[in-house]
Amino acid sequence: MTQAKTSDVQGAAAPPGLRLEERIYHDLLGRIQTGTYAQGERLPTENELAAEFGVSRPVIRAALARLREAGLIVSRQGAGSFVSAISSGPDTGYGPLGSIDDIAGFFEFRRFIECETAARAAAAATTAQIAELREYLSGIDADIEAGQATIELDIRFHAAVAELAGNRFLSESLRMLRPHMRFVGQFVRSLSPQGYVSAKMNMQAEHRKLVDAIASGDPDRARQAMKRHVESSEQRIFRGTGNAG
């Protein structure tokens, strides 16, 4: 695989130490969020991007796959990849994480948003919705046991809590944070392979306390459970002890 120099990857700054496809993903994400690639615009072809960055097509394909998973681009058979209507422009998304201060700000923002989503969820959740949250946790347990990454189910779990808040702006804020949650999860895993499983178990214990608090119907208890979870996740990142969650 051909390696690109740091100077080859232009656009939004990506944190150091990322794999090549992740650096290209951050660059393309920055171009979308700043409007360099506008709403509905067709992206350059895989061959064109590979030539621009000096990498192989599989590397470009991996970066584009992450953008599709985040809902930032859509693929049209025979036509290529296009910027999604919900993702373009400087005011429709959050820029990529580019520094330690950004990561700290990311967790601070999560506290603002997610503590309120948890409180509102506790006031509104039905028995069936609580059962659905517990199913997400069972899925995370299975991934932990199988030694698989848990970030996607974790993101879906947090998104499900936000949906229960009944305010689309809260849930859309969580949606826009998905690329950042993925990056943080992958970043931590690369930094701290040791103790990663035990950290995931701690994360799951916090998740269970959160669901129990939502099930209790007590907004204050749910708010505090989410606050402890987000703060513990932040500590795991800065202490290098495991999963972000």
Explain the overall architecture.
By secondary structure, this protein is mostly helical. The protein has two domains: 78 residues, Winged helix-like DNA-binding domain superfamily/Winged helix DNA-binding domain (Arc Repressor Mutant, subunit A); 139 residues, Four Helix Bundle (Hemerythrin (Met), subunit A), CATH 1.20.120.530. The protein contains ten helices and two strands. A two-stranded antiparallel ribbon has the order 1-2. Strand 1 and strand 2 form a beta hairpin. The longest helix is centred in the middle third of the chain and has 25 residues. The N terminus is likely disordered.
Largest sheet: 2 strands, antiparallel
CATH superfamily of the largest domain: GntR ligand-binding domain-like
Low-confidence regions: 1-17, 87-92
What is the percent of helical residues?
55-70%
| Sequence of secondary-structure elements | HHHEEHHHHHHH
Kindly report the oligomeric state of this protein: single chain
**Computed structural class:** mainly alpha
